[in-house]
Design goal:
Layout (H helix, E strand, L loop, with lengths): L2 H18 L4 H33 L17 H5 L3 H7 L12 H32 L5 H11 L8 H11 L6 H4 L6 H11 L4 H9 L4 H12 L1 H16 L3 H6 L8 H6 L9 H11 L1 H9 L1 H9 L6
């Protein structure tokens, strides 16, 4: 039997033993069962990350031999090493423009993710503010059309988008990635729903005090929807960081490619560098993880906002 089987059997035996204890055993057993179930859920959630970390440090000769780590006796015999990271970081002369460092790809992804996220939040929040707080003819029709457009998959618009990018002369430039992602219907609708709850009396008081419309939006309305802003920031950053299809189509220069496209080059028909691919994946999850821990409280608050009254 596997070690996991023995652990589950031991947990079940302990639970039965607690149930058999008279008195407090009946109260302790449910609490113990909850802890066990939470530990199992945590283990299942963390298993892919543990496997990723173990695989990134395994030698390519034993990559498929062990699920996680080899026996402890083989750890110091070359079974675990940093070769995958060394090959990943080595400067490779695979571009006509000259050698390209792995860190250049990380800088490219960080630049694209931060730029698109900042522009998207700014424009989407302004459009959401206009739909939430201004009364103008056709506002409901615009909102209806926007929501209806969310039913169409993005793949459906890829061909006309490619033609537009080509005619504008944006091929092999970051404009082909930044401009189409500068604003989204989902972001507008999200900010619109959040800003509807901002009291109109607060905005009228600011207008009476002489505040401009942009100042009201920037210094009063936007701070009040900070949880939604943080949640949308994380969602947009992750979506841009993991984007693969559009960078693969619109960017051809090797030194301009973002990280997901470059990592995919290690797995192909004639190349299967799984160790290097997993080592790069391990490094690629660090920036989004840092952003999540920074925005964790605001992100949870944004997801649960409006769940309760009072």
């Amino acid at each position: 039997m596997h070690t996991v089987h023995w652990v589950l059997i031991a947990a079940a035996v302990i639970y039965v033993a607690l149930r058999l204890i008279p008195g407090k055993g009946w109260k302790i057993a449910p609490a113990y069962l909850r802890v066990v179930l939470l530990c199992i859920a945590a283990f299942l959630t963390l298993t892919p990350f543990i496997w990723l970390i173990c695989s990134a440090f395994k030698d390519k000769t034993i990559m498929m031999q062990y699920t996680f780590l080899p026996p402890v006796s083989d750890w110091f015999n070359g079974a675990l090493n940093l070769d995958n990271f060394r090959h990943l970081i080595d400067v490779k002369d695979i571009s006509p423009q000259g050698p390209v460092s792995f860190w250049q790809y990380i800088v490219n992804s960080i630049f694209l993710s931060c730029t698109i996220t900042s522009i998207n939040i700014f424009l989407s929040s302004m459009a959401g503010y206009a739909l939430a707080k201004y009364r103008f003819k056709g506002r409901n029709i615009i909102a209806f059309v926007m929501i209806g457009s969310m039913m169409f998959p993005s793949m459906l618009l890829l061909a006309p988008l490619f033609e537009m990018i080509y005619k504008f002369g944006w091929m092999d430039t970051y404009l082909a990635l930044i401009i189409p992602s500068a604003i989204t219907v989902f972001g507008i609708f999200l900010f619109r729903q959040a800003m509807v709850g901002v009291p109109n009396s607060l905005l009228e008081s600011a207008r009476v005090d002489g505040a401009s419309e942009f100042r009201i939006y920037w210094e009063i309305t936007l701070p009040l929807v900070r949880p939604i802003t943080a949640a949308y920031c994380l969602i947009t950053f992750l979506g841009t960081w993991n984007a693969f299809l559009q960078p693969q189509i619109f960017v051809q220069t090797q030194s301009k490619l973002p990280l997901p496209v470059v990592l995919n080059q290690y797995i192909g028909l004639y190349v299967q560098e799984y160790g290097i691919f997993l080592a790069g994946t391990l490094l690629a999850i660090i920036p989004p993880a840092i952003l999540f821990f920074i925005l964790q409280k605001e992100f949870v608050a944004g997801l649960t906002s409006g769940a309760t009254k009072g």
